[in-house]
Design brief:
This is Cell division protein ZapB. Keywords: Coiled coil. It comes from Methylobacillus rhizosphaerae. This protein has 2 helices and no strands. It is mainly α. The chain has one domain (2-6, 15-77). The longest helix has 62 residues, at 16-77. The termini are far apart.
Length: 83
């Protein structure tokens, strides 16, 4: 990709070693871009999982609060000295 661009721009006087370096750089950039895309997708999945976990946690807290109030109401209805 980079090599083709340099050729189109008439940079034909670069050396074979420079050409090899450019090819290596292009390969490394391709790997970096692929890794970036993979990590970005993974990050999105993790963010979505975090939101689901936070929603689940909120629901569990609400359920526990409701259960606490029900238990307190039951305790209040018990006859005196039953506890």
């Amino acid at each position: 990709m980079l090599h083709a661009w340099l050729t189109m721009c008439r940079f034909c006087n670069y050396s074979g070693a420079m050409n090899a370096d450019l090819i290596t750089l292009e390969e490394k950039l391709s790997q970096l871009i692929a890794l970036y895309q993979l990590l970005r997708a993974e990050n999105l999945e993790l963010r979505q999982a975090l939101v689901r976990s936070q929603d689940d946690n909120q629901q569990l807290q609400e359920n526990m609060e409701l259960a606490k109030h029900k238990l307190l109401a039951l305790i209040d209805r018990l006859p005196e000295g039953a506890i």
